[in-house]
Amino acid sequence: MILKLDMNSTVPIYVQLRNQIVMGIGHGELKEGERLPTVRQLASDAGVNTMTVNKTYQILKAEGYIQTDRRQGAMVARNITMNKEFREKLESELELLSAEASINGMDKSEFMKMCEIIYSKMNPQPLQA
Q1: Which domain range does residue 55 map to?
Q2: Residue 102 domain flag
Q3: Given the DSSP bridges, would you call strands 73-76 and 66-69 parallel, antiparallel or unpaired?
Q4: Phi and psi of 67, rounded to 5°?
Q5: Is residue 125 part of a domain?
Q6: What is the pLDDT of residue 30?
Q7: Which of 53, 66, 92, 109 could be cross-linked to 60 through a Cys-Cys bond (beta carbons 3.0 to 4.6 Å apart)?
Q8: Do 34 and 58 have their domain in common?
Q9: What pTM was computed for the model?
Q10: How many domains does the chain have?
Q11: Taking Cα atoms as reference points, which of 60, 41, 39, 69 lies closest to residue 51?
């Protein structure tokens, strides 16, 4: 997975890293159980401070996207499932995006079609019961 960070962006680097790892999981580039680079390795590869990567991994772990183990390091979590907090976050973000689309003149069918196209590009892992 190739990371593309914009050092001039107003979006913090740790958020950009988090988002790109989540996208990698969503697109199937990172598989369930796959090891992620060590904090030091990812920091070196991305040209950022190790504390930045550490913060990213802490957030991803709290969100349930990765698991960490002192011996194994960080890896993509197994059995990622939707929880109440995620559902609420998703609903809130979709409400904001829907409002922005509407304000900018996009009709519902166009918005839904765009959502369909983007979602179809994902390679989600099957949810475990």
Answers
A1: 13-76
A2: yes
A3: antiparallel
A4: -120, 150
A5: no
A6: 94
A7: 66
A8: yes
A9: 0.83
A10: 2
A11: 39
